[in-house]
Write a structure and sequence with these properties.
This protein has 242 residues and is of the alpha+beta class. It has one domain (2-227): Alpha-Beta Plaits. The chain contains eight helices and eleven strands. The strands form four sheets. The protein has a five-stranded mixed β-sheet with strand order 10-9-8-1-11. Strands 2-3 form a two-stranded antiparallel sheet. A two-stranded antiparallel ribbon has the order 4-5. The longest helix is centred in the N-terminal third of the chain and has 10 residues, at 19-28.
């Protein structure tokens, strides 16, 4: 997956919460208070605001995969890291091991939408949600297996999210198709916390002058929903008219 930060503006100009989050929540009935993809408000050394979405990094050398004592976290045949909630014992060792804070825990039984019916449980689409289990972004395996974009990418109005195929060396945001290796190389793409050796499979195309490899987890909290309109006004008039 590739996030083009030159295009992402947090949906501020739309006057809404980030649509990648909204799309994900709607597709997966994500429990209230949780988000499988978060959007962080960042600030450059020069004081400029930019936005950085953070889903599961789908690491090649995934710490979460290595510490699960019951094999509930695993990599499927397509290389996507999933969680089997029928095996998860809720020890949360995977949460402690993840350097991206990309997992959450169901302390209570999540409410399912009234009248909703679900097919038999499968890790690719882990619905209904279960108390006492860990959840995370599944890269919409139930959609990508059918050649569709993940819900976050399909919902992005700026077409800032690309789904890539390493074997075919292509990526698409639903509007255009690019040669993946060239796209990453030409635009100086980077990955978060590369120094840890996790080899994340989520790349970022820098834009708005953000610092290379900035650590979102140590410097920012997710943007509060109440601030969208206020922030939009700030970006349009950063000096308050003076």
């Amino acid at each position: 997956m590739v996030f083009d930060l030159r295009k992402c503006e947090g949906c501020v100009t739309k006057g809404t919460a980030p649509q990648c989050i909204e799309g994900c929540n709607a597709e997966h009935f994500v429990p209230k208070g949780q988000e499988w993809i978060k959007v962080f408000e960042m600030e450059t050394a020069g004081g400029h605001t930019y936005f950085l979405p953070r889903p599961c990094m789908q690491c090649e050398n995934a710490p979460c995969l290595n510490v699960c004592p019951v094999g509930a976290t695993y990599r499927n045949a397509e290389g996507v890291i999933l969680v089997n909630h029928e095996r998860c014992i809720g020890c949360r060792m995977c949460m402690a091991a993840c350097p991206y804070a990309a997992r959450s825990f169901n302390w209570e039984q999540p409410e399912n939408p009234a009248g909703a019916t679900f097919a038999r449980y499968r890790p690719e689409y882990p619905i209904p949600h279960r108390k006492g289990t860990v959840e995370k972004c599944m890269l919409c395996a139930h959609l990508t297996d059918d050649g569709k974009l993940p819900a976050c990418a399909a919902a992005c109005p700026m077409y800032a999210i690309y789904l890539g195929d390493l074997g075919e060396d292509i990526a698409t945001n639903g509007q255009e198709v690019v040669k993946l290796s060239l796209f990453l190389a030409e635009h100086n793409a980077y990955r978060l916390k590369e120094e840890l050796g996790t080899r994340p499979r989520v790349w970022y195309i820098p834009g708005h002058g953000e610092e290379y490899g900035h650590d979102v987890n140590e410097t920012r909290e997710p943007m509060p929903a109440r601030s969208w309109q206020e922030l939009g006004a700030t970006l349009e008039n950063p000096h308050g008219g003076h």
